[in-house]
Backbone:
């Protein structure tokens, strides 16, 4: 697969692809992320290389970004959602996989954000940053997110 650059076209700004096992794949821009309800979160994490880091992020819930794409859950079957994964990729190739249950309001219900502001800076140039509110290490807080894909475990081994 060809890498999608963080900035798709000059002047068009950052585009984040939301795709995978969803009814409505979509391209999301920073303005779309800012139009969703905004949450603020202060995170402190310990990086092996750079020591203790502290940042204040603002942005929508990852859940609110993904829900309009309509993941292909079996309707009315709460347990079906436990098979689903969210794979995030940054422009530099850094990847993180979450389980859907981590952010699902009926399971983990963690307030994971897609930050559009970090400290005093808008992230319009580099793209949004994943904000994991409770992580000890900062490595899952990937910056410059370009792609969010939803997958499911198909179930029976072949
Ligand atoms: N795209 C991307 N995001 C990334 C990384 C990376 O290599 N690429 N490193 C992570 C790691 S290991 C840490 S500790 C934090 C560091 O963020 P800070 O230096 O802005 O505090 O960014 C995370 N986000
Ligand atoms: Mo880190």
Residues:
């Amino acid at each position: 697969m060809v890498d999608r650059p963080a900035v798709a076209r000059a002047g068009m700004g950052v585009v984040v692809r939301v795709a995978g096992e969803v009814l409505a794949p979509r391209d999301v821009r920073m303005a779309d992320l800012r139009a969703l309800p905004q949450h603020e979160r202060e995170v402190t994490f310990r990086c092996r290389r750079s020591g203790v880091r502290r940042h204040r992020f603002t942005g929508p819930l990852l859940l609110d970004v993904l829900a309009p794409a309509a993941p292909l859950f079996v309707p009315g079957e709460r347990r079906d959602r436990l098979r689903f994964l969210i794979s995030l990729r940054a422009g530099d190739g850094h990847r993180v996989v979450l389980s859907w249950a981590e952010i699902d309001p009926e399971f983990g219900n963690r307030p994971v954000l897609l930050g559009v502001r970090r400290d005093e800076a808008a992230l319009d140039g580099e793209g949004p940053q994943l904000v994991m509110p409770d992580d000890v290490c900062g490595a899952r807080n990937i910056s410059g997110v370009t792609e969010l894909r939803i997958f499911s475990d198909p179930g029976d081994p072949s």
